[in-house]
Amino acid sequence: MYHESLESFPKHFLWGAASAAYQIEGAFDAEGKGPSVWDEFTKIEGKTYEGTNGDVAIDHYHRYKEDVKLMAEMGLKTYRFSVSWARILPDGEGDVNEAGLKFYEDLVDELLKYEIEPVLTLYHWDLPLKLQENYGGWESRKTIAAFKEYCRVLFERLGKKVTYWVTFNEQNVFTSMGYRWASHPPNVTDTKRMFEANHIVNLANAEAIRLFRKMVPQGKIGPSFGYGPVYPLSADPSDVLAAENAKEFNNSWWLDVYCKGRYPVAAFKQLERKGIAPTVLPEDEVLLKQAKPDFMGINYYHGGTVKQNKLEKPSQENDSKKEAGEKAFSSTDPYLMQPREEQSQSPEIPMFQSVENPYLEKTEWGWEIDPVGFRLALREVYARYDLPIFVTENGLGAKDIVTEDGTIEDDYRIDYLNQHLVEMKKAITDGVEMIGYCAWSFTDLLSWLNGYKKRYGFVYINRTEQDEKDLSRIPKKSYYWYKDIIKQNGEQLNEE
Ligand code: BG6
């Protein structure tokens, strides 16, 4: 659909940027904070790039005022951050650590001072270690009760100051990486356990939303999901069917539960046949139906392309193995739909086979660059779930270089973001209702698995993997570019 001219962004559109506690705060044991699963996981040899961890990160805990000031100077309308659960409840439950709570209240006050709308993420992957040790983390229903308690503390303290709340960040990513591919905590490779843990998180999400309705009736809450459209490689109906299967497994598996309170049928039946479907109790079904979010948070990086998988027909197994050799995915891509090595083990594998998209270029880290897919993602989610969309992440990870005169000329990032914002504007012109857009990220930060080499920020942080240097903040060229976009409310974003 081509538009002669694009509609303006809504008047109060929330232009923003995002971050996550473990990736920026540092101060890993300051003022009573308890350890999280990430504090432990990053210390396991070989798990992260050059053994990087978030002990210091970019020291946002001590420098948040400086960071918020930079946000204000940029004209940011909103800032999405996450709370470290173990800062508030060092053991995940029980006694509240007032110093931790106060840190977030001070941060929120600082944002409000500059009229920056806070968006608070309750869970961006850093589960308190004690809950993992005592209960097995998300594999136990006891963790739901602990999560509810943690939410209650935050709703009580910040419910009047914070309007927008995100429950879980990319549930699809942390459950897959954590329980299936062992590249996140708790370092497990067991698909059955993944689906069980994921179900527990669904229940925690629903409990949090139910509690929110009682305690913060004027607020808005929703999960942030790592969404990617799925393309069939060809118009062969078998490829189209494979894409439908992949959509169910990669997107609807989560979004249907959030918004419709039930799992998609074909995927669920397939898991049942394999004996790895999650255990769903009758009371779970009731709970899940009572927790429709107010908005859908979408993190968009890229989608995927699939074709029919001939493994489905055992007689063609050999052919398919040969074809599988054509593909090469980066194993650190959290949106990876199906690593080649897993061809024979995974339950959904026979239902589709991931392939390279011949039309798309890639980033330095092998992630496809697909701005049109962004428009498509927004359209699909809005059409299927009828909820306003808040883009809670989108951005480019790249190696930035500081020039001799101390500037960072990140034109590639400007180009990437510009293309995505134009597509978002087209989606708005198509009729998608949008609340805001948070680029990932405001400052450079610790990439979970890629250290500080892979940078996303508008603001450069002067540090490397091994050398903390002075952690000074240097606005990049993209900082000034985004400042102007915000100032003009995106009026300059037009079809090229
Ligand atoms: C998202 C996460 O999956 O992608 C962020 O919510 C993360 O926390 C971002 O940093 C980019 O991932 P990576 O691996 O490139 O740092």
Account of the 3D structure:
The chain has 496 residues and is α/β, with parallel strands linked by helices. The chain has a single domain, classed as Alpha-Beta Barrel (TIM Barrel), CATH 3.20.20. The chain contains 16 helices and 15 strands. An eight-stranded parallel beta barrel has the order 1-2-3-4-5-7-12-13, surrounded by five helices. A three-stranded mixed β-sheet has the order 6-8-9, with helices on one face. Helix 15 links the parallel strand 12 (389-393) and strand 13. Helix 7 runs parallel beside helix 9 (191-215) and helix 8 runs antiparallel to helix 9 (191-215). The longest helix is centred in the middle third of the chain and has 25 residues, at 191-215. The protein binds 6-O-phosphono-beta-D-glucopyranose. 6-O-phosphono-beta-D-glucopyranose binds at residues 20, 23, 169-170, 173, 226, 299, 334, 393, 397, 440, 447-450, 454.
Task: Summarize this entry quickly.
This protein is an alpha/beta fold.
